Amino acid sequence: MKFKILALALVASILSSCSYKFSGASTTGLKTVVVRLFENNAPLVVPTLSNQMTEALKTRIRTQTKLIIATTGESDASFEGRITGYDIKPVALQNSATPTSGANRLTITVSVKYKNNVKEHEKESFEESFTRYFDFPINGAPIQSLLPGAIENINKQLTEDIFNRAFAQW
Predict the structure, then answer these.
(1) Residue 56: exposure state from Cβ atoms within 10 A (0-12, 13-18, ≥19)
(2) Where are the domains of the chain?
(3) What is the crossing angle of helices 143-167 and 49-64, to 10°?
(4) pLDDT surpasses 60 at 108
(5) Quick check: 133 and 106 in contact, CB under 8 A?
(6) Distance CA 83, CA 103 (A)
(7) CA–CA gap between residue 117 and residue 102 (Å, rounded)
(8) Domain at 24-167, CATH homologous superfamily
(9) Are 72 and 28 spatial neighbours (Cβ–Cβ below 8 Å)?
(10) pLDDT (tens digit, 9 = 90+) per residue, 55-90?
């Protein structure tokens, strides 16, 4: 008798339970993608930023999809972009008598063109700008020593935004 009640309770809980599926990236129908080098057209140019941004996007695609990153030729999808903004500004003043910055904000803006070459694919092509910033305290350290970590943080955020816009099912 106990077994029948337990079995009935188990079946009832299975049938009445809700399930959610976060499908994440949808690359159905896509096999290859080209990621062209992001040009650096910002007024303030960091020589390595173009390559860092491009490689960060490629890495995200490699680790989160089964897409093959092609170097040239025909592909199912392609990314191309430009770094249009790179700016560092103080955001936290420590002393009102002699204003000194306690923190700086690095802001990077990229303009991205995503082209989906697969007809009737669920994700459409787009051309859009993405902006992210990162605040970092100075704490007596030279700003040049803090910038690589700030750039890496922003690149992670930007590539997540671009990846989600191109492939996520939200």
Answers:
(1) buried
(2) 24-167
(3) 40
(4) yes
(5) yes
(6) 24
(7) 48
(8) Lipoprotein like domain (3.30.160.150)
(9) no
(10) 999 999 999 999 999 987 789 999 999 999 999 998
